Every structure is written in C-alpha cells, then in structure tokens.
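stage 2 :: seqdesign
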C-alpha cells in the first residue's frame, strides 16, 4: 500500500515538473527567463530572435559593449573583424555589414565561444555558443 502511494506521488511530481518545463520554453528552445523584454517592445531588427536586456548579459559581455562604444582598445586581434554570417542565422546583408567582438570567458585559455556581433544599422547580437544561436541585445 505504501509503495503505491509513493509511486503515485512520484509520478505526479514528475508530470508537474514536465509540464512546468514545457510551458516555460519558447519555440526556439530558450526559456522565458532568457527574454527580458516583450517581443512587442523589441525593435524591428530583433524580430524572430530571443532578446536579452544589456543589464542581463554577463559582466564580460557588458564590458565588451563598453569597449565597442568607446572604439577600443580591444584585447583580441580579431575584435572588430568582419563577421561573415556563414551560418545564415542573422538577417542577410552585404559582406562587411557585421563585425564581431570577443566576450572573454573566465577560465578559457583561448577566445572561447562568446561573441557580440554588431550590424551597421545599430544591431547588437549576443551568442554564447559560437554562432549556433543569437539573442538580440536590447540597449
């Protein structure tokens, strides 16, 4: 009798956990905690992307944004280089439209996977998985 009760409680808890997990994910697999601003208040260039407020970015990403705003100096030789958008995740533009900047990753010996990509139209995108996904940075 006790085992049946325990099994029912366990199954109920697992179902509840599953329902909560499914309801918090958007179509891109990002959780609602990742989006800090509603889609209706996001700029047109951010349409179709998850968004993140600048204040919600890791401290190292905010530092990179400050360096971009100041025009450098940048700690990595490739900072400010053309971003080719070969993955075709960002909107298509002519070559040279996007620039990429390294976001330092603590305990990484190389550049790591985190980047800020900027567009000539004032767009800012953040990736923490080396261009597999992007979030529009709302400033």
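stage 2 :: out
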């Amino acid at each position: 009798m006790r085992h049946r009760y325990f099994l029912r409680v366990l199954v109920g808890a697992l179902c509840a956990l599953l329902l909560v997990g499914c309801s918090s994910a958007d179509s891109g697999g990002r959780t609602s905690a990742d989006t800090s601003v509603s889609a209706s208040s996001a700029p047109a260039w951010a349409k179709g992307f998850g968004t993140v407020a600048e204040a919600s970015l890791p401290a190292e990403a905010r530092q990179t944004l400050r360096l971009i705003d100041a025009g450098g100096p940048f700690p990595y030789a490739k900072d400010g280089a053309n971003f080719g958008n070969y993955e075709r995740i960002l909107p298509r533009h002519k070559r040279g439209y996007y620039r990429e900047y390294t976001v330092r990753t603590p305990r990484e010996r190389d550049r790591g996977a985190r980047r800020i990509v900027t567009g000539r139209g004032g767009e800012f995108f953040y990736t923490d998985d080396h261009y597999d996904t992007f979030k529009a940075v709302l400033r």
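stage 3 :: structure notes
- The chain has two helices and six strands.
- The first strand starts at residue 50 and ends at 53.
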